[in-house]
Amino acid sequence: MSVQSKEVTNDKGQQYHICCSKEDIGRYVLLPGDPFRTDIIARHLENAKLVAHNREHKTWTGTLNGEKVTVCSTGMGCPSTAIALEELIHCGADTFIRVGTCGRVCPESYNEDLEGVIITGAVRDEGTTVHYVPIEYPAIADRHVIDALAKACNDKGYNFAEGIAQSKDSFYGQHDPDSMPNSGRLHQRWEAWEKSRVMASEMETAALFIVSSIRGARAGAIMAYGSMNDHTIELACDAIKVLIERDKE
Ligand SMILES: O=P(O)(O)O[C@H]1O[C@H](CO)[C@@H](O)[C@H]1O
Ligand SMILES: O=c1cc[nH]c(=O)[nH]1
Question: Where is the Nucleoside phosphorylase domain (predicted)?
C-alpha cells in the first residue's frame, strides 16, 4: 500500500504549485518539461482546455478515446518535477508519460537514424530523489507503460531505441565540464555512463520514476534527441490511448 504526501493548498484550496483541483486533472498525464510544449501537445487532445499556469507548470486537460487526459509541464530538473508529480497524484492522476528532449551518451546512441529513446530506467545522478529513498533503490519505468510506448512505436514504424537515461542536475556540467572546478569527477562519471550503454542524458526522469514508484503510480518516458519532434509527441499520445484501451479490459 503506497502512501501519498500531505496536501499543501493555496487560498483557493488548489494544489499549491500547479494550482489545480481534483476535477481539473485526468488519470492519464503527459509531462513535457517546457510550458510552451504543453500548447503543442494539447492540440493532440479533444476539447483541450487550459486549466492553470503557475510558475513553470502549465496545465491543459482534454480527452483521448473518451478518457480525461492532462498535459502538465514539469519545468527543468528533478525538484520541480517531483513537486508536479506529488500534486498531480493528489488530484487523482496515476499514469504518467514524460515527453522530453535529451542528449546522446554511449556510442550506440550516436546512430543518426535514431529519433529518440523509450526510457526503461534512469541513473539517479541528481539530488532530489535521495530525499525520498536511499540511492540503492532503482529508478525504473512501469513495464505496462514501456510496453504501450513500444507498441505505439512498432505500429507507426518510427525509429526509437529502448534504454537507460542519466538524469543530472547540471546542463552545463554535461556540455562544458572543463569550465567546472569539479571537471575530473564529471569526466570520470560521464565515461562510466558511456561505457554502461546509457542512451540519453536529461534532467527529470529519475524524479518521475522514483516518485511514481513510491506513490504507487505508473510512469514511462519517451525522449527525442536534440529538439522536440512530431513523432515523439505522436507516440506518447498513442501510448496513452493503448493504456486507456488496455485499462478497460
Ligand atoms: O525538453 P525537456 O523536457 O525540457 O528536457 C530537457 O531539456 C532541458 C535542458 O535543455 C532539460 O529539462 C532536459 O531534461
Ligand atoms: O544535451 C541535452 C539535450 C537535452 N537535455 C539535456 O539535458 N541535455
Answer: 27-225
Task: Please tell me the distance between residue 249's alpha carbon and the centre of ligand 1 in angstroms.
Answer: 35
d(CA 146, CA 111): 22
Distance CA 49, CA 27 (A): 16
The DSSP element (H or E) to which 125 belongs, if any, is strand 116-125
CA pair distance 154, 225, nearest whole angstrom: 18
Is any ligand 2 atom within 6 A of the Cβ of residue 232? Answer: no
Q: What angle do CA 29, 34, 39 make, to 5 degrees?
A: 65
Ligand nearest to the CA of 33: 1
Q: How many CB atoms lie within 10 A of CB 29?
A: 27
- Backbone φ and ψ of 205, nearest 5°: -65, -35
Q: Which of 194, 198, 206, 183 is nearest to 133 (CA)?
A: 206
Q: Indicate the pTM of the whole model.
A: 0.98
Task: Convert the pLDDT of each residue in 30-85 to its tens digit.
Answer: 999 999 999 999 999 999 999 999 999 999 999 999 999 999 999 999 999 999 99
Residue from 169, 86, 88 nearest 123 by CA: 169
Dist. CA 101 → ligand 2 center (Å): 6
Q: Is 113 exposed, middle or buried (0-12, 13-18, 19+ CB in 10 A)?
A: exposed
